[in-house]
Amino acid sequence: MEFHASSPCPCRALDAEKPAYSRCCQPFHEHRASGEVLPDTAEQLMRSRYSAFVLGLAGYLLLSWHETTRPADLQLDGELHWEGLQIVKTRSGGAQAVRGVVEFIAHYAQDGQRGSQHEVSTFVRENGAWFYLDAL
Ligand SMILES: [Zn+2]
After folding, report:
1. How far is the CA of 46 from the centre of ligand 1 (A)?
2. Distance 132 CA to ligand 1 centre (A)
3. How far apart are CA 44 and CA 24, in angstroms?
4. Rounded to the nearest whole angstrom, what is the distance from the C-alpha of residue 30 to the centroid of ligand 1?
5. What is the pLDDT at residue 78?
6. Ligand 1 centroid distance, CA of 112 (Å)
7. Looking at residues 59-65, what average pLDDT do you find?
8. CA distances (Å), 38 to each of 29, 44, 76, 95, 120, in order?
9. b or e along 96-126 (b: 16 or more beta carbons within 10 Å of the residue's beta carbon)?
10. Domains by residue range for the chain, with CATH
11. Which residue among 60, 83, 95, 129 is least crowded, i.e. fewest CB within 10 A of its CB?
């Protein structure tokens, strides 16, 4: 998929302010393996995982998935066209927290039909890195 670092970040497609990918989720995507740049909050991790879905970055999704719930393999559905992320509510998950909960709605289109995925996700932080744990 062709995507430019100066394009608006996929996670902000529905927002009034649209920071560039290079100033939003890209640093997290590029530095997860080294741990040099990590999301401060559970919401930032949630956003970066949504953007990874949009951009087909299965490796990032697996790296940011807690080892106790992570699938062995991940096939992304290329038929889904993600259109935007709406953060409904966050609970805890701040810069000093070790657990966080993020409620979100992810909008997509498939075969010309619009749909959305409404989920409440839980996150844990270990050694400074946030991980997706599971959905409530
Ligand atoms: Zn982003």
Report:
1. 9
2. 16
3. 9
4. 13
5. 80
6. 25
7. 97
8. 9, 9, 23, 11, 22
9. ebeebbbbbebbbeeeeeeeeeeeebbbbbe
10. 10-135 (3.10.450.50)
11. 95
For residue 80, what pLDDT is reported? 86
Q: What is the CA(119)–ligand 1 centre distance, in A?
A: 18
Cα 123 to ligand 1 centroid, rounded to whole Å: 17
Average pLDDT score over residue span 60-87: 93
Ligand 1: centre distance to CA 50 (Å) = 8
How does pLDDT run across 12-58, given as a tens digit for each residue? 999 999 999 999 999 999 999 898 999 999 999 999 999 999 999 99
**In the structure, what pLDDT confidence band is assigned to residue 62 with cuts at 50, 70 and 90?**
very high
Indicate the average pLDDT of the chain.
94
Ligand 1 mean position, distance from CA 12 (Å): 6
Amino acid identity at 97:
A
